[in-house]
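Sanity check

After download, print the first record. It should look like this:
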Amino acid sequence: FVIEFFSYPVIAGFACAASVQVSSAQINNLFGIPAKSKTFLGSWQQFFEKIGEISKWDTVLGIFSLLFLIAFREIKRFETTTFRPNWSRMRNSFGIFIFGLSIARNATIVIIGTVIAYSYRESAPLKATGSIKGGFPPFEPPPFTTTFNGTTYTFAQMAKQLDASIFLIPLVTIVQIVSIVKTFCKHGYHQNVTFLINLFQLLENR
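Expected structure tokens:
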């Protein structure tokens, strides 16, 4: 019943704000600028301060990826899985293939970008993420103590540092999950909300 506590205006407002925040956080990565910030204004401040450090090839690949995603999102609207008698068999098959590609557009562009970056790894025109440790983190209880800059913090001290965020972060997480669930429900898909909320929380903690 948790899903009923959030109205569509709240979900729409959250989704809009989240998209703006995520876009701002990635603006430096899009143009290959070596800067990181966790705040909205900080991201744009660093962007304008280091605008002269824009990487040409990172920008080209980033804009190509955006155009690819937008183009294939529009193709999806044509519903080309339907067999059309006035089309030849080859044209129908090609239409179904393109429609399937539009559904998997996110995975497709990731694969394309990975192949391009790997192909030019020697000349290094693109900034790569670097070495990533494989596998999942170990399944274990969350730590109740942590060490930062040589200082060990207890759970109570960590909670004090988080302040109001200790309540806001779970609330935002729930709203995020509910917005995804309501998006699926809007299209007529039947969902077990309780199961999905717990599943998302489990995956998010990994």
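If your output differs, re-run the checksum step. Summary of this record's structure: The chain has eight helices and two strands.
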